[in-house]
Amino acid sequence: METYIRNMQKSLLNNSVVLLAAILLPCCSQPSEIQQKPAEAFKSTYSDYYKVTHNETEVPVYYSRVGAFVIIALENEKNKLTIDNHAPIETVEVIPSLGPGYEVENSTLVLDEVKPGKYFIKIDRNYVYPLMVFGYAAEEKKEGSHVFPAGIHDAGEIVLASGDHLILEKGAIVYGNVISENATNIRISGTGILKGTKIPMDESPGIHLINCRDVIISGITSLDPAKANIVLAGSANVQVHNVNLVGNRELRMNDDGIHITNSQGIRVTHVLTNSRNNAVSLRHDSNLDGFNQDIRVSGSWFWKGDYGDAIDITYGADNGKLKDISFKDIDIIHCEGGAAISMTAEAASFTDITLEDIRVMNASFMFLDIQLQESTTLENIVFRNIDYSGINHAYSRLEVKHNPGNLKIIGARYKGNAVTSPGDLYLRTSTPGIDIIAGSL
Q1: HSE of 398 in the Cβ direction (CA atoms, 13 Å)?
Q2: Strand pairing of 435-437 and 320-335?
Q3: To 10 degrees, the CA torsion angle through 180, 185, 189, 195?
Q4: Phi (first) and psi of residue 41, to 5 degrees
Q5: Residue 36: partners with Cβ closer than 8 Å, 6 or more residues away
Q6: With contact defined as beta carbons under 8 Å apart, do 180 and 159 qualify?
Q7: Strand-pair category, 57-59 with 50-54
Q8: Of all residues in the chain, what percent carry a pLDDT higher than 90?
């Protein structure tokens, strides 16, 4: 009950601050172009908010409530993208940066020599409805036990057994969800879309692996899940690579990108998330064996809406363990409400946890939210080279009730300035003894 009340208080506080920010900073959170766009312009499958041409060929622009997106084969470095916005363009930001390689004329943006990769294109500070480009190098034809070719498919629940390979081919839109339990050697791949809009609210995640081993998930786009996009529960040796996880800001409140519980040997690389709730969440479930261990999240981009946190490590009072965890080379592009990085626990054991090279580009509420109670033990917890560069004064909270010296913040920067003491983090509260080290080690 105490945990529930604390979470409710945090949620109410977050929502109050978000509402105030929406009133005071309308230019950042609610561009006028969005308000002026008629609702009928948004379609269930495709969006006409942007028009995109790839090397003179128009490509489908897919609809989601958190941004439009295109899925394109960018097979070389000579790719030209022409983007027609619904209104004249004043400013452009491409993340990751393409340098000076673009031109703007009235409402048209032209990008030259776009390499394979994932990009957020933010026009006129549009934090509400960016254009996302999912550019893959090439798609290899593979044999699979479950293959969905180009077209729209009403698949419902897809159950995978040991040895199964689910393939969503280019142009496939598959309405349904995927579940596998106690299975080994599973593959989920392709460049198609798994879409959860026909699954009842909170019924099942987009992909749910329970006690599974030796799994590879690559290439696909998970869109608008009924719960989280991907849930790994009690699973081991799972690779999640080069996937796109897109939630639904208006309808789904529990649309985490990746939710990891009691799992080991997890590798998450080159993943883009745009969700209303947590981007990547680590939790402990006392009903499952084992604990989260040997988890690596790297080279990814997170865009989070108004619930939860971008990087979310939350442990309650059930004495959970967390060991050998690394988040490295992460861009948190936008974070409404909640915190960009959150680590909270009531009674847990945290050992060898590193968050390194984390760049937070915008946060409307909190930068760091670290709340570790007296019953939580710490050993070698390091935040290294974390940087906040947003326009807002996102505050931080550092409350470590036991062994605060075992948590180090090394080489942090806040709005361009080196962090040499807790006060440099625009603190709301702080515990003495946390080790703040300027520079790098």
Answers
A1: 23
A2: unpaired
A3: 0
A4: -70, -20
A5: 87
A6: yes
A7: antiparallel
A8: 63
CA–CA gap between residue 361 and residue 335 (Å, rounded): 9
Closest-CA residue to 277 (of 243, 247, 297):
247
For 119-173, the pLDDT digits (tens) are 999 998 777 789 999 999 877 777 888 999 999 999 999 999 999 999 999 999 9
Q: Tell me the domain boundaries of the chain.
A: 41-136, 140-437
Amino acid at 389: S
CATH architecture, range 140-437: 3 Solenoid (2.160)
The tokens describing 6, both together, are 């604390």
**Helix H or strand E encompassing 21:** helix 2-24
Give the separation between CA 300 and CA 250, rounded to whole angstroms: 24
For 218, the token pair is 């690559």
Mean residue pLDDT of the chain comes to 86
Q: Taking CA 89 as the corner, what is the angle to CA 84 and CA 92, rounded to the nearest 5 degrees?
A: 95
Contacts of 47 (CB under 8 A, 6+ apart): 41, 61, 62, 63, 64, 68
pLDDT band at 440 (very low <50, low <70, confident <90, very high): low
**Domain 41-136, CATH:** 2.60.350.10
pLDDT for residue 268 is more than 80: yes
Asked whether the beta carbons of 275 and 300 are under 8 A apart, the reply is no
Strands across the sheet containing 68-73: 68-73, 131-136, 117-123, 92-95
Which whole number is the average pLDDT over 326-332?
Answer: 97
Q: Is 290 exposed, middle or buried (0-12, 13-18, 19+ CB in 10 A)?
A: middle
DSSP E strand boundaries for 287-347: 292-304, 311-315, 320-335, 339-345
How many angstroms separate the Cα of 346 from the Cα of each of 218, 284, 396? 35, 12, 19
